[in-house]
Specification:
By secondary structure, the chain is of the alpha+beta class. It is built from 20 helices and seven strands. A five-stranded antiparallel β-sheet has the order 3-4-5-7-6, with helices on both faces. Strands 1-2 form a two-stranded antiparallel sheet. A hairpin with a 4-residue loop joins strand 1 and strand 2. Helix 16 packs antiparallel against helix 17. The longest helix is centred in the middle third of the chain and has 40 residues. The protein is globular.
């Protein structure tokens, strides 16, 4: 839910921004927003590159009970974000005219592009640092706070949009100023996290050497690159498509494309919300080989996003004016052209939902080749290939049709590649790289009290695996310590995996954090590891194989 709220806040603010600009200023100003869209998308590149990449590595270290390593990657990611986003700010101002000329705005959109860009450039480092930091806050047991920060920033943006455009008539500069102020307030709100004693990510600048920072930054980039490259290729694709639709249809073409992007943002509220949730949960469950719960989470996420995509696609196919009216494009002389574009483009939402979920899943399990295939084809090569192939036959319609075909091609391509990998490496099975035979050797239990009947069932299973009585007694004491320290007001999720040469028992609960210290003091640290992961107490107990 928190990831969903973040996606909702970000995307609704973009939609409202475009709607206010078209309503209070006009279609040439809306066309300017589409011209600048490649620059706006730069923010998402850094958020995925350092936020997602750093988060995955930091969470993996947490799963390995390495607090120092987790803080190292957090510090590295934040420092890299600050340095590179400030460098981009300087480049944008130093080469502003050249940058705007590179975007090739139409004559009608050019004045608005010039007016909107200064505050947009200042927003780059503010929004990027905020986005990356919120990625870490979200997985540090404070998802509601991360959501609240982003929501507050975008509510302020929307309110100021209306005041600056509708009341004070400040022109398109008011829209970019509203965005800058909104994100600046959001960044100030994150100061609460820095003074929170319960946070587990901490800056360790004093321990960070320059050479180590560079190497760790490269490591983070490697992990975050597939997701970030999705943003990078999207920037290139939007730029090229802007040139095509602007060259063929002028400002009208840019307005149509802007509405298509808005439609994509609306459905992305759900898709990206669930996908980013996967990116934080998958590394933990996959590292612990908890394929039972992993399968349940992934399956439900895919089903929900596909159902929502089908509903939204059906709505736009039947009633495209339901979206177009917010941009005053539903009663134009070319309304047939506009409606046709929206209907065809909406066919991309269903395959996009599945390919995006796959992409973030592969990111979470560090399968960079598979996630790279999806990114390159769906976000760049696929749409360009089909536009080039079909343009001689159906003209500008090929642009809208190329997006659904690109997503479909990416799914087909990655499925073929996974089949090839599966033949070479028999350890894994299927699109989701589940380890063969391990699900059958896995048991999941939920205890609601220390005398829960389920505990007896678990102990009987351990006895069937020839586990000695002393090990079972130790496990019983650990469980008793957890419940006694929380006055029985806690649920304990237990994952038990038989690896043959060893048995690993992982226990998670949302109870008192002090319990972990008590367990560390009371039991042998050779067999027990404790950590805090995704807001849960995480206790791992190792039993040598019989």
């Amino acid at each position: 839910m928190p990831s969903l709220l973040i996606a909702m806040a970000l995307n609704i603010a973009s939609v409202v921004d475009a709607s206010f600009v078209s309503t209070f200023i006009g279609h040439n100003a809306q066309a300017a927003l589409q011209v600048l869209e490649p620059l706006v998308l730069l923010i998402t590149i850094f958020e995925w590159l350092f936020g997602l990449g750093g988060q995955i590595l930091a969470l993996n270290k947490k799963a390995e009970f390495d607090e120092g390593g987790s803080n190292h990657y957090f510090t590295t990611a934040m420092l890299a974000t600050i340095v590179l986003s400030v460098l981009i700010l300087l480049v944008c101002f130093l080469f502003k005219d050249s940058l705007i000329n590179l975007l090739h705005p139409t004559a009608g959109a050019l004045p608005y592009v010039n007016a909107y860009s200064p505050y947009l450039f200042i927003s780059f480092p503010i929004a990027t640092i905020l986005g990356v930091l919120c990625q870490f806050i979200r997985v540090d047991g404070q998802p509601n706070f991360a959501s609240g920060v982003i929501i507050v920033a975008n509510i302020i943006n929307i309110i100021l949009d209306y005041l600056f455009l509708g009341v004070f008539h400040m022109g398109i500069e008011g829209a970019s100023l509203a965005m800058m102020i909104g994100y600046a307030v959001g960044l100030l709100c994150t100061l609460k996290y820095h003074f929170d004693s319960k946070r587990t990510f901490r800056f360790v600048f004093s321990e960070l050497k320059f050479g180590t920072w560079i190497r760790s930054t490269i490591e983070i980039i490697k992990i975050g690159l597939p997701g970030a490259s999705m943003g990078f290729f999207n920037v290139l694709l939007i730029y090229i498509m802007n040139l095509i639709v602007g060259g063929v249809l002028g400002e009208l073409g840019l307005d149509i494309f802007n509405v298509c992007v808005v439609a994509l943002l609306l459905i992305s509220i759900l898709i990206m919300g669930f996908a980013e949730t996967l990116s934080s949960i998958v590394p933990i469950y996959y590292a612990q080989n908890d394929f039972y719960n992993l399968h349940h989470i992934v399956r439900n996420s895919i089903i929900i996003t596909l159902v929502c995509s089908v509903i939204f696609t059906a709505f736009l196919l039947i009633y495209p004016d339901g979206l177009l009216m917010f941009f005053k494009l539903h009663q134009t002389a070319n309304d047939g052209l506009v409606e046709n574009a929206i209907r065809i483009y909406s066919l991309a939402f269903i395959p996009m939902a599945f390919s995006t979920m796959l992409l973030f899943y592969y990111e979470g399990i560090e399968r960079t080749v598979e996630s790279g295939i999806i990114t390159v084809i769906s976000e760049f090569l696929g749409p360009l290939f089909f536009t080039y192939l079909l343009y001689p036959f159906i003209g500008i319609t090929s642009v809208w049709l190329s997006f659904p075909l690109g997503f479909i091609l990416s799914i087909v391509a990655v499925s073929i590649y996974v089949k090839v990998v599966e033949r070479k490496d028999s350890e894994y099975s299927g699109l989701f790289f589940i380890r063969r035979g391990l699900i059958e050797k896995t048991r999941n239990y939920t205890l609601e009290s220390k005398n829960d009947a389920v505990k007896s069932e678990m102990f009987n299973h351990l006895k069937s695996l020839n586990v000695d009585d002393s090990s079972i007694e130790t496990l019983d004491k650990i469980i008793g310590t957890i419940f006694d320290s929380n006055n029985e007001k806690v649920h304990v999720e237990i994952l038990l995996i038989d690896y043959g040469d060893k048995i690993v028992i992982n226990m998670k609960d949302e109870g008192n954090r002090e319990v972990m210290k008590d367990i560390e003091k009371s039991f042998s640290q050779d067999k027990i590891k404790v950590s805090e992961v995704l807001g849960f107490n995480n206790v791992e107990y190792l039993i040598d194989g019989a």
